[in-house]
């Protein structure tokens, strides 16, 4: 029943807690024994009372009953605490491993799947698996033991009654296996209808200005009505299926109990069983349903966990397209760059065709070209977010594929155009949760970048909460944060994809100053949208449809009125570069 | 008690289901358990020879089986009424909430964050609907509690008192524990929310972590948050189990007391004037105690439900502040199955001759930049361009005019007539709008363009052409019927912008309002869009935000904004002469009077 992967999950995440798993099993068995003992004590009481024993002896039995009852509950609390802890710990370990794996996957994967979907994989699916960890193994075992113990005790009390109830229990188990699927399918349909409703509302609430200004109120309400009605019908069908299923199981048990009772009466009248035995039969017949239901429920939560487990397996089976190699370390200091005959394509669409250029250590390259000309792709290739189709990129004389990914990404600073700002403090946004960076170092860093006044203007300094619900940042300010992140790494090559948005003058000044400092004594590749930035470059490369259209020293190109660069400068950079 | 009135009002709204559900509760909690206890007593007494009820063991078995069968089948027989009762109530609450959001958007926007609004849409109606089911159960269980207590007291008053008193005492303790559980549950939910929020942040910003090389640190933080969630969750689970154990122990405690006292009574050692306590009585006590154990919990549940109902209702009401009190719980027609009412017919067209705006003022709730005292007018057929630097208030002006942002002052006149509710007024066919960052929805491209309008192929083709979208449509696998959005093809920013423009053109509105296209469209495409718009042959009145030379040259009137105020207006050549701000913008755009673009001003 368990696949090899299920077993490996159990081995990886449950085995470290083996001693507690054993303790849990022991608690469970103890609890079962106590639960089974309860009706036996009452039986002893009844039989002794009817046999005319003294009140004192009966009081002892009554006290024993109370003691056992309390102990049962104590065991159940201890068991729950242990099982929950076990489940959460193993599931949390799995979550962290999954998150680590997911973060190691490339951009493409993240673009295709989106944070919401991955959140559901890592948090939602694992929750189903947590149930599997904390309950499945132990509860299936426990319910099975409970059932067997009860049937054995019934058989011992009277074999005929025991056989009747065993037969009914088997029939019920069989029915639950079949009928459970019928209920589960409807439950799945109901959950889907509910999810579709919520998805719809989420999307429409996000697009209210579009809806209102398109006069789509009526259409939106109609679609809402459709989804509300679908949810109503599906949920209702699921509830009815569940109710019908419960009733059918109930009828089976009632008939079983009825037959057992009738048998008991006949045997009692024949003097074969005591009244106490009949009490035991009545109680056990009432209790037998519980382990059976748990068994069947576990089967279904196992099926649910299976769906989650297979998605988790798929996720773990997705490998990053870029193999993490280990190899030559990159030299210290500013890094020279050689891009040699580089071609690259997304799917079937060629993005770069045989791009070649060089950059000496400490030089700054201005990369220009229209949207879609391949500028950003070059930046991403330099950071090895993708691997090349043809050609080679060498950094400090070493092919990117021959150095380790950690070394490369440690030595190359990348300021992306879209800066991701977390809903967290400024401190956390710059350090990205690296606990080794002290506040002093951060303050010094802002000083170095010339941002001390900007920092001072923030209401709570480094503790200012940014992002959704916090202080909003303009595109320029977001780039300041990205620059600070890069500065913290002290890289040998800086790739800067400038924000194309228009900036207010104050931010523009900060940004210009900070970029100057960042590029000081470092090699830089700048995708420029501003004349000021272009003027800082030593060399210029102009891309057109993935090819190098023009390449050379800025001063030379600027002096040649026939160069494309000179034309660009005349007609204004922004309109043609953005 | 106002909450109780709301429960009653909602019960009346779902009256048939409420009656069904209450009947069900009365049957399974009262009508059946009561004789079941009596039949069980008769069964044991019949066997032990102490029969008083006149039933022998055989007829008692028949009665027990029949009663249990009736109990098992009551749910399906009555159509499982608890489910439609709660669901119908949820449909009403959710529909009212959403309708309120749509109606009030122009006046107050969405007053809470989208995620928060969704949680209130999803979770709070469930809480409110649960109170109805709790009320049904309470009725059934109360009947049982009263009659069962009487029956037990008649059998043996002392014993009945001795088992019932601890029951009610312990329910006190349970009430206290319940409060603790609620606070633990809230803490657990918060911890869980923090885990999810953090995880979605690091997933959404994975590139930033890769770039900074701090993935390990982020994972450590994630692990710490997970550990925190484990602690809070286990704490809640253990307390919950304790409470359960407490309830179950009540039955056992009661049974134990019955056994202890019965030890004497059953043995007939008591005085002869007392009725003997039989084995059958013992069985009846155990069964009734089982049913009564949950009674205090049930009373607690309805009290807690009523409290939660108030909280939930207030939370929902806060999303629709413009609606009357408790509007979300006000009965209204709902549609539980098709056919669904068609979208409302388009309003009658009223040709625009002149639009006048006086003293429009709008401050963002966040206290950020707004606009103050903006007045202008535009004539039929005119192309008006709003220009200005970032943060000058251009988008705010458009959205305040259209009633998509709450205004703080000012008036708008359509053909000289004052507009009372701009949000309701500026809709097609009067006005249509393309936002700076428009949204499309997960559906086919066709459905996204139509949004409820009749599917007219010619009109669609015209709108797609005007939006410069025809090449994109041709490039999609299924053309207009290609699903787009999260479960379909992901469109680029430019494609979304042009699709939104096509959606606007399809409305053939009197007034077109277009926010800045430059963030998603290159200069060439924007120029193409304007030239197609004015070549379409229809008389177009358009108000657009743009700093691009092509738009500025075409403008009949430029409204120049700076720091939330209208600082100048006029045609391009006049403004270039008279306004330093205009010259600055013009230079920043890198435009020269003879530069590229599509020619001289009209």
Topology:
The complex is a heterodimer of chains A (578) and B (602).
Chain A (H helix, E strand, L loop, with lengths): L3 H10 L4 H33 L4 H50 L2 H51 L1 H48 L1 H6 L3 H53 L5 H13 L1 H29 L19 E10 L2 E11 L4 E6 L5 H8 L7 E6 L2 E2 L5 H7 E4 L10 H6 L7 H10 L3 H6 L17 H15 L3 E5 L7 H15 L3 E5 L3 H6 L2 E6 L2 E7 H6 L4 H8 L1 H5 L1
Parallel strand pairs in A: 3-8, 3-9, 6-7, 7-8
Antiparallel strand pairs in A: 1-2, 1-4, 4-5, 9-10
Helix pairs in contact in A: 2-3, 2-4, 2-8, 3-4, 4-5, 4-9, 5-7, 5-9, 7-8, 15-16
Chain B lengths: L1 H12 L1 H17 L1 H16 L8 H21 L4 H27 L5 H9 L1 H32 L1 H48 L1 H7 L2 H52 L12 H39 L36 E9 L8 E9 L3 E6 L5 H8 L7 E6 L2 E2 L3 H4 L5 E4 L8 E2 H6 L6 H10 L3 H6 L7 E2 L8 H14 L4 E4 L8 H13 L5 E5 L3 H6 L2 E6 L2 E6 L1 H7 L1 H9 L14
Parallel strand pairs in B: 3-10, 3-11, 6-9, 9-10
Antiparallel strand pairs in B: 1-2, 1-4, 4-5, 7-8, 11-12
Helix pairs in contact in B: 1-2, 1-7, 2-7, 3-4, 3-11, 5-7, 7-8, 7-11, 8-10, 8-11, 10-11, 15-17, 20-21
CATH architecture identity of the domain at 337-421 and 473-577 in chain A: 3-Layer(aba) Sandwich
CATH topology of the domain at 337-421 and 473-577 in chain A: Rossmann fold
Largest sheet of chain B: 6 strands, mixed
**What proportion of the residues of chain B is helical, as a percent range?**
55-70%
Proportion of strand residues of chain B: 5-15%
Strand order of the largest sheet of chain B: 6-9-10-3-11-12
Q: Unreliable stretches of chain B, pLDDT < 50, 5 or more residues?
A: 592-602
Distance between the termini of chain B: 70 Å
> What share of residues of chain A is helical?
55-70%
Q: Greatest chain-chain interface?
A: A-B, 142 and 151 residues
């Amino acid at each position: 029943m368990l696949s090899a992967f299920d077993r490996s999950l159990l081995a990886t995440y449950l085995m470290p807690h083996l001693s507690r798993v054993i303790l849990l099993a022991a608690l469970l068995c103890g609890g079962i024994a106590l639960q089974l003992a309860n009706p036996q004590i009452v039986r002893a009481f009844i039989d002794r009372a009817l046999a005319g024993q003294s009140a004192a002896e009966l009081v002892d039995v009554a006290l024993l009953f109370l003691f056992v009852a309390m102990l049962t509950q104590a065991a159940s609390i201890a068991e729950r605490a242990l099982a929950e802890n076990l489940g959460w710990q193993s599931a949390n370990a799995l979550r962290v491993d999954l998150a680590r794996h997911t973060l190691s996957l490339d951009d493409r994967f993240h673009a295709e799947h989106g944070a919401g979907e991955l959140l559901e994989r890592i948090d939602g699916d694992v929750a189903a698996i947590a149930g599997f960890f904390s309950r499945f193994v132990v509860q299936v075992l426990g319910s099975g033991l409970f059932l067997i113990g009860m049937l054995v005790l019934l058989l011992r009390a009277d074999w005929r009654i025991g056989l009747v109830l065993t037969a009914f229990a088997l029939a019920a188990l069989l029915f639950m296996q079949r009928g459970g699927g019928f209920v589960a399918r409807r439950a799945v349909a109901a959950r889907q209808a509910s999810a579709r409703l919520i998805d719809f509302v989420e999307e429409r609430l996000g697009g209210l200005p579009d809806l209102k200004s398109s006069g789509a109120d009526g259409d939106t309400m109609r679609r809402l009505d459709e989804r509300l009605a679908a949810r109503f019908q599906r949920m209702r069908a699921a509830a009815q299926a569940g109710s019908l299923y419960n009733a059918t199981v109930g009828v089976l048990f009632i008939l079983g109990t009825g037959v057992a009772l009738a048998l008991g009466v006949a045997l009692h009248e024949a003097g074969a069983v005591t009244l106490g035995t009949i009490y035991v039969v009545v109680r056990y017949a009432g209790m037998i349903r519980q382990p059976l239901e748990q068994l069947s429920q576990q089967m279904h939560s196992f099926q649910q966990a299976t769906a989650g487990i297979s998605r988790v397996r798929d996720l773990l089976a997705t490998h990053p397209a870029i193999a993490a190699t280990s190899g030559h370390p990159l030299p210290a200091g500013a890094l020279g760059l050689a891009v040699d005959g580089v071609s690259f394509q997304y799917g079937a669409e060629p993005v770069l065709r045989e791009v070649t250029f060089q950059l000496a250590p400490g030089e700054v390259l201005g990369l220009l070209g229209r949207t879609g000309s391949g500028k950003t792709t070059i930046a991403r290739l330099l950071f090895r977010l993708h691997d090349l189709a043809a050609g080679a990129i060498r950094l400090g004389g070493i092919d990117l594929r021959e150095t380790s990914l950690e070394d490369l990404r440690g030595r190359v600073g990348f300021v992306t155009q879209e800066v991701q700002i977390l809903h967290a403090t400024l401190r956390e946004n710059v350090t990205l949760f690296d606990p080794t960076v002290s506040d002093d170092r951060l303050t010094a860093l802002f000083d170095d970048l010339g941002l001390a006044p900007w920092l001072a203007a923030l209401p709570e300094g480094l503790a200012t909460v940014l992002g959704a619900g916090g202080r909003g940042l303009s595109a320029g300010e977001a780039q300041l944060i990205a620059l600070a992140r890069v500065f913290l790494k002290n890289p040998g090559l800086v790739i800067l994809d400038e924000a194309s948005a228009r900036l207010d003058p104050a931010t523009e000044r900060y940004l210009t100053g900070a970029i100057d400092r960042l590029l000081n004594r470092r090699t830089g590749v700048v995708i420029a949208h501003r004349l000021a930035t272009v003027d800082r470059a030593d060399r210029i490369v102009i891309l057109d449809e993935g090819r190098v259209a023009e390449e050379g020293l800025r001063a030379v190109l600027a002096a040649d009125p026939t160069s494309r660069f000179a034309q660009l400068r005349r007609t204004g950079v922004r309109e043609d570069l953005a | 008690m106002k909450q109780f009135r709301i429960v009653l009002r909602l019960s009346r709204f779902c009256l048939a289901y409420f009656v069904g559900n209450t009947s069900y509760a009365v049957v399974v909690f009262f009508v059946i358990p009561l004789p079941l206890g009596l039949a069980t007593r008769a069964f044991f007494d019949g066997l032990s020879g102490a029969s008083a009820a006149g039933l022998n063991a055989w007829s008692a078995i028949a009665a027990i089986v029949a009663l249990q069968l009736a109990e098992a089948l009551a749910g399906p027989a009555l159509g499982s009424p608890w489910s439609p009762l709660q669901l119908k109530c949820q449909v009403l609450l959710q529909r009212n909430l959403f309708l309120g959001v749509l109606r009030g958007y122009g006046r107050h926007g969405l007053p809470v964050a989208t995620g928060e609004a969704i949680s209130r849409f999803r979770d709070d109606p469930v809480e409110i609907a649960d109170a109805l089911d709790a009320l049904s159960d309470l009725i059934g269980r109360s009947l049982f509690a009263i009659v069962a207590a009487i029956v037990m007291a008649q059998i043996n008053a002392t014993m009945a008192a001795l088992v019932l008193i601890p029951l009610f005492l312990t329910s006190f303790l349970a009430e206290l524990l319940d409060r603790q559980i609620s606070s633990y549950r809230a803490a657990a939910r918060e911890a869980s929310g923090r885990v999810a929020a953090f995880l979605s942040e690091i997933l959404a910003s994975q590139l930033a972590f890769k770039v900074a090389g701090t993935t390990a640190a982020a994972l450590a933080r994630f692990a710490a948050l997970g550990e925190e969630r484990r602690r809070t969750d286990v704490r809640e689970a253990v307390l919950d189990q304790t409470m359960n154990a407490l309830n179950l122990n009540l039955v056992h405690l009661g049974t134990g007391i019955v056994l202890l006292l019965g030890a004497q009574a059953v043995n007939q050692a008591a005085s002869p004037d007392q009725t003997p306590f039989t084995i059958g009585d013992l069985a009846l006590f155990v069964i009734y105690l089982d049913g009564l154990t949950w009674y205090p919990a049930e009373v607690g549940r309805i009290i807690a439900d009523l409290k939660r109902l108030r909280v939930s209702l207030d939370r929902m009401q806060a999303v629709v502040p413009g609606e009357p009190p408790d509007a979300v719980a006000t009965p209204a027609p709902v549609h539980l199955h098709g056919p669904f009412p068609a979208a409302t017919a388009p309003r009658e067209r009223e040709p625009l001759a002149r639009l006048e705006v006086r003293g429009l003022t709008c401050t963002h709730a966040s206290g950020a930049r707004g606009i103050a005292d903006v007045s202008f007018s535009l004539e039929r057929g005119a192309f008006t361009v709003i220009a200005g630097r970032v943060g000058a208030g251009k988008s705010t002006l458009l959205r305040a005019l259209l009633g998509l942002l709450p205004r703080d002052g000012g008036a708008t006149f359509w053909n000289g007539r004052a507009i009372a509710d701009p949000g309701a007024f500026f809709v097609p066919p009067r006005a249509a709008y393309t936002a700076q960052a428009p949204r499309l929805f997960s559906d086919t491209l066709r459905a996204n363009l139509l949004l409820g309008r009749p599917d007219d192929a010619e009109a669609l083709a015209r709108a797609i052409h005007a939006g410069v979208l025809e090449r994109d449509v041709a490039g999609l696998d299924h053309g207009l019927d290609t699903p787009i959005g999260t479960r379909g093809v992901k469109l680029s920013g430019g494609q979304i912008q042009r699709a939104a423009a096509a959606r606007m053109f399809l409305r053939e509105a009197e007034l077109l309002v277009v926010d800045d296209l430059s963030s998603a469209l290159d200069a060439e495409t924007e120029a193409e869009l304007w030239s197609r718009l004015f070549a379409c042959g229809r008389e177009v009145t358009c108000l657009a935000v743009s700093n691009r030379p092509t738009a500025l040259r075409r403008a009949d009137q430029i409204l120049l904004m700076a720091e939330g105020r209208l600082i100048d207006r006029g045609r391009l050549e006049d403004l270039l002469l008279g306004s330093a701000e205009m010259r600055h913008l013009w230079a920043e755009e890198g435009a020269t009077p003879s530069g590229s673009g599509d020619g001289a001003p009209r």
